[in-house]
Specification:
Elements (H helix, E strand, L loop, with lengths): L1 H10 L4 H8 L3 E5 L4 E3 L7 E7 L2 E7 L2 E8 L4 E2 L2 H6 L6 E4 L3 E7 H10 L1 H27 L2 H12 L8 H8 L3 H10 L4
Antiparallel strand pairs: 1-8, 2-7, 3-6, 3-8, 4-5, 4-7
C-alpha cells in the first residue's frame, strides 16, 4: 500500500493516522489482459489505483470503440461519474495488459470521506484535476491539427507509445491509423 500512500501524499497533505485509516480498506485485485473492469450501463462500485498494466476507457458508437482515456501505473481510475453518483457508466474500462490494482468499494470510500474532512479535500482536488484534464482534451480535440495532437500526446504520454497498440492511440487522438503511422515516421518530437 506504500505506492498508494505515496500517490495520495504527492498531491495532498493528509495526516498519517487518517491516511492509515483510509488505506486499510483497499484490497489488491488482478485482472487479465482484455478484462472489462467497468461496463457501460452498469454502476461502477470501485475506485482503483493502478499498480501495473495499462487500461483504456471507451464507449461504443455503432459497435465501434471510441477511446476517451488511458490509465497507467500510479494513477487512480474508475468511471468517476458512475462511481461518485452510483449511476450506470456511460463507457467501458478495459485492461490492455494483465493489470494489478488496489481498489476500494464505494461504501468504504463514502464512509471514509464522510468521516475525514481531509479526504473530502482530496476528493475535491482530484475532481478539479479531472475536470481540467477533460476540458484540456476537449479543446485539443476541437482545435489541434493532426500533427499537433500527435506531438502533444508524445510530450504528455510518450512513455505509452511502446505499451499501447498504435491503433488505440490513433483512435484516442481521432487520427486515421495510416496517418498515425506516417506521423511516427515523419514528425520530430522535441
Amino acid at each position: 500500500m506504500e505506492k498508494l500512500k505515496e500517490a495520495i501524499l504527492k498531491h495532498h497533505h493528509i495526516e498519517q493516522d487518517i491516511l492509515d485509516d483510509f488505506v486499510q480498506y483497499w484490497e489488491v485485485v488482478d485482472f487479465s489482459k482484455n478484462a472489462i473492469i467497468s461496463e457501460q450501463g452498469k454502476t461502477d462500485n470501485y475506485l482503483y489505483f493502478t499498480v501495473s498494466g495499462c487500461q483504456k476507457a471507451y464507449y461504443l458508437n455503432n459497435g465501434k470503440e471510441s477511446i476517451i482515456s488511458f490509465t497507467q501505473p500510479n494513477h487512480f481510475t474508475c468511471a468517476p461519474e458512475s462511481f461518485l453518483t452510483q449511476k450506470p457508466s456511460k463507457y467501458y474500462f478495459q485492461c490492455i495488459h494483465d493489470s494489478s490494482f488496489y481498489r476500494i468499494s464505494y461504501q468504504h470510500f463514502k464512509r471514509q470521506v464522510d468521516k475525514h474532512v481531509a479526504l473530502q479535500y482530496f476528493l475535491t482536488n482530484s475532481l478539479m484535476g479531472l475536470v481540467n484534464n477533460i476540458t484540456d482534451r476537449f479543446i485539443k480535440q476541437a482545435t489541434y491539427s493532426i500533427s499537433m495532437k500527435f506531438v502533444d500526446f508524445m510530450h504528455e504520454h510518450g512513455n505509452l507509445i511502446n505499451h499501447i497498440p498504435q491503433k488505440d492511440i490513433a483512435n484516442f487522438l481521432n487520427i486515421n491509423p495510416t496517418n498515425f503511422s506516417k506521423l511516427i515516421n515523419s514528425v520530430k518530437v522535441e
